Amino acid sequence: MSASPSRPARPPRTRTRTKPNRWLALGVLALTQLVVVLDGTIVNIALPQAQLELDLTDGQRQWVVTAYALAFGALLLLGGRIADYWGRKRTYLVGMLGFGVASAFGGLAQNGVELIVARGLQGAFAALLAPAALALLTVTFTHGRDRNTAFAVFGTIAGAGAAVGLVLGGVLTEYADWRWCLLVNVFFIVVGLIGGMLLVTESKAEGDNRYDVLGAITVTLGLGSLVYGFSLAEHGWGSPDTIGFLALGVGLLVLFVFIETRVAQPLLPLRVVLDRVRGGAFLIQAIAGSVMIGATLYLAFHLQIVLGLPPLEAGLANLPLTVAIMIVAPFATKALPVIGPRPLMIAGPLIVAAGLLYLSRITADGDYFVQVLPGLVIMGVGMALVFVPLQNLALTGVAPHDAGAASATANSAMQIGGSIGLSVFTAIYAAAVAGVTVTDAATQLSAFTAGYSATFVAAAVAMVAAAAIAVIFIRVGKPAPEKTTASEGDYLPVGM
């Protein structure tokens, strides 16, 4: 009789002992997300200097950004399945190591081709690293308030990472050299490797796991063709090359979907994306990625080329976006369990759109504090409302066996959205610039400004579309009461 009261006392002591490790692991995984996201933008500020030193063409300059996002997004689904089947911790560590080596190679590049190849390799290893990290987060924080907090932290890092990359890129380019925008990753990688080995617990999908090789080939080639086709649109939407690659990409992706319905263990189980809420979250994530990667690149160009800010000042000029996200995110996190994700997911994109429309009013002789700063603050408020619930929604109700595939889809949506968005924005920018008659240096700056303004308007339209998607697809209310099992959903449905 005396032994029975002592048994229930053990579990609380165990939870108390393991909880600090869980939160330390969250710190390591969040650092991973920061590295992956900021590397999508950290070279933006450095591109003018790198273009001069390596004699890059304008096309090569765009591909320094696109190569990373394209390789990352196209290989993420395969990376997610490798994480599920081979082991998430093992995949995470290999991705970390490879990302560090690729970063060092890029930092030592001697010409444009080497730099673009290095960026592609960074993206390829990020495709191993990112889904493994997110899947580890999913199986570490399975449900309840802790899960919401963990995903809010992770989502905030994702939202702020692009702007952090611009600031860090400005500091390194100004006081060191553009090459340090890549070499700095080595320090992050060392921390991530040590933390991963000590704090992260291995997990993988159980059962007989087989790789969907044909699916991996078709989705990779399909996404690659699609992004390349959009990049060619700068030279004309009606050109045979543009139409051909876009058609090829769509055809290969249709074939990929057909393959996924026929194989026993698909690369992307269609149940992951056909869920209404998750599907909507993936679409919104793609649009948000296009804005954070594409629009911030052209803002960086405006700050340096038109307003004449040096790299450090241009990087710091983006800081209000990050600060606004970091300030608003805790309030959004507290509001999430009270009102649910749907109001945040509708209001957030509309607020971001308002900020982008404000930025579209820029002029060649304008003032940063009047024409740029308010728009960045408004964007930051909206992005915080989007990113706090987004990662959690994208993985709500996912079975542990599919955690890597769902995590990869979430990341892939953002990266492919970013690379496609950048290509589309480039085409819009080129068309707007071509519409301005250039006679001297002043009209040249006006032409650039017209192009940047057009991209901000296009990005605003995309965010309004994201809000409409939230209205239609995000049909969930506030979180359900905490469950005792991780397989149950995290949110209550709302009525039609």
UniProtKB/TrEMBL annotation:
The keyword Transmembrane applies. The keyword ATP-binding does not apply. Its main location: membrane. Pfam families: MFS_1. Signal peptide: none annotated. It is found in: Cell membrane. Residues 25-478 form the Major facilitator superfamily (MFS) profile domain. The chain crosses the membrane at residues 23-43, 63-80, 92-109, 121-139, 151-172, 178-199, 211-230, 242-259, 280-303, 315-332, 344-362, 368-388, 420-438, 450-474. It comes from the Bacteria. Keywords: Cell membrane, Membrane, Transmembrane, Transmembrane helix, Transport. InterPro entries: MFS (IPR011701), MFS_dom (IPR020846), MFS_trans_sf (IPR036259), Sugar_transporter_CS (IPR005829). It is a multi-pass membrane protein. PANTHER family: BLR6921 PROTEIN, MAJOR FACILITATOR SUPERFAMILY MULTIDRUG TRANSPORTER MFSC. This is MFS transporter. It comes from Herbiconiux daphne.
